[in-house]
Amino acid sequence: MGSSVRYNYNAAPLFKKALQDMKNSQLASGLIPEIAPEYVKFEWGGDMFRDSPEWGSSSILMPWYLYQWYGDQQAMFDYYPMMRRYINYLGTKANNHILSQGLGDWYDLGPKPPGVSQLTPMGVTGTAIYYYDLKVLEKTATLLGKKADAMAYSKLAVEVRKSFNNKFFDAKTKQYATGSQAANAMAVYMGLVEEEDKKAVIDNLVKDIRDRKNTLTAGDIGYRYVLRVLEDAGRSDVIFDMDSRSDVPGYGMQIAKGATALTESWAALPTVSNNHFMLGHLMEWLHSGIGGIRQAENSIAFKQIKIEPEVVGDLTSANVNYNSPYGKISTKWEKTDKNFMLEVNIPVNTRAVVYFPALPKGELSEENHAAFTDAGIENGKTKVAIGSGYYKFNLKYK
C-alpha cells in the first residue's frame, strides 16, 4: 500500500517509524513478524500468520522505497543490518530457493470463503518477493559500497530466479503455476520472466480477466502487481473495465454495499472488517495511470518525471496532483470529440517527458508559448520533453 499512501501523504516519517518497530520486533532468528510492534503474537495456523515473506519483506523494501521516493539514504545505512538478518533468515527457510511458508495471496477470490491463498499455490508469492528482496539488496549494498554483499545477493538472485522458473513456469502455455492473475502478474513485475516470454505472460493475464468478464481474482498481495503490470503494458483499459463493475466483488461492489471505507474483503462481507486498509491499491493507479504522474526509470525523488495520462473508458476529464520532494506535480486533462487538452505543472529543478494519448492524428500546440522539445513517437504516442513550469497543451484532431 506504500505507493498509494505516498501519493496522498508525506509518508516518510511513518515509514521510518515502522522500520524502527520492525527492528525492535525482529527475532533472534532474523524473522520479522507480520505485526510490528508485536503487541499480539499471532499463532493462528502455527507460524503461518507470523512468518509470511510478503509482509516481513517490508523490512527490506521500505528503506529502498524511502530512497527511491524521497531521496533519503539514511534508512539504508541505519537498517542494513536488519535487512541482512532477514534475508539470511529467508535463506534458511528456502527449499531449493523456494519459500512456501505464510499466507500467500491473502484474501484472493476462490471457491472458499476468503483467507489463505486459494488460486495461487504456496511458494509463488513468497519466492517472487524473495527474488525482489535480493535485487533490492543488491542495489542497496552497491550504494553503500558493500561490493562483496552486492555480488553475493546478485548470485543468489540468479539461483532463485532459475528455481522459480523451473518450478512454476510452463514454457508451452506461458503460464506461471495455475495461471492465476497473481502468479502471472507477480512473475512479470518482479522481473522473473524471460524477455521473450513477457508479452505472452501479460497476454495470459489479460485473457484471464477478459474471460471472467472483467472480474478480478487476485488478493491483498497479488492485486497491486496486476495493476502495475497492466498499466506498464499500456492496458489501463482493462483496469478501468475490471474496476467499474459493481455486480462482482471489487471496488464497485464495496460502494454498492454502502461502504464508506475500504473493506477487508472484495465482497464487503459483513463478517470481516469493514474499515480495512489492505485492498486500496487502485489509488496508486488513479495518480500514475489516470493522472499520468509517474517517476521516470532510475530517477530518484521525482527529479525526472514521466507524464502519461491514460484516457480510458468513458472518462472525459481528470485533475490530479502529487506533492513530490521537489514540489507539486499536477496534471489536468479534458477530452472532447475535437481535441485533448492537458495542463501540466512541473516543479523547479526537475524535467519531464509528456506522453499524449494515441488518439486520431492531431496538431499539438502550447497555449502559453512555453518551450518544449519534440521527443518523437513511442508506442503510437506523441511525446515532448519539458523543463519546470506551467504548460497548457492542446492536441487538436485533424
Comma- or semicolon-separated keywords:
globular, 398 residues
**Count of separate DSSP helical elements:** 13
Q: What's the mean pLDDT score?
A: 95
What radius of gyration results from the CA coordinates?
A: 22 Å
Strand order of the largest sheet: 3-4-8-11-10
The shape is globular
The end-to-end distance, rounded to whole angstroms, is 42 Å
Largest sheet: 5 strands, mixed
Given the helix and strand composition, which structural class is it? alpha+beta
Topology as a string of helices (H) and strands (E): HHHHHHHEEHHHHHHEEEEEEEEEE
State the low-pLDDT regions, or none.
Answer: none
Strand fraction: 15-25%
Total strand segments: 12
Layout of secondary structure:
Elements: H1 2-6, H2 12-25, H3 53-56, H4 58-70, H5 74-93, H6 124-143, H7 147-168, E1 169-170, E2 175-176, H8 181-189, H9 195-211, H10 222-232, H11 236-243, H12 251-256, H13 282-290, E3 293-295, E4 304-307, E5 317-324, E6 327-335, E7 339-346, E8 351-355, E9 362-366, E10 373-378, E11 381-386, E12 389-397
Parallel strand pairs: 4-8
Antiparallel strand pairs: 1-2, 3-4, 5-6, 6-7, 7-12, 8-11, 9-12, 10-11
Helix pairs in contact: 2-4, 4-5, 5-6, 6-7, 6-8, 8-9, 8-10
Please, could you describe this protein's structure?
This protein has helices spanning 2-6, 12-25, 53-56, 58-70, 74-93, 124-143, 147-168, 181-189, 195-211, 222-232, 236-243, 251-256, 282-290, and strands spanning 169-170, 175-176, 293-295, 304-307, 317-324, 327-335, 339-346, 351-355, 362-366, 373-378, 381-386, 389-397. With 398 residues, the protein is an alpha+beta fold. The strands form 3 sheets. A 5-stranded mixed beta sheet has the order 3-4-8-11-10. Strand 5 and strand 6 form a beta hairpin.
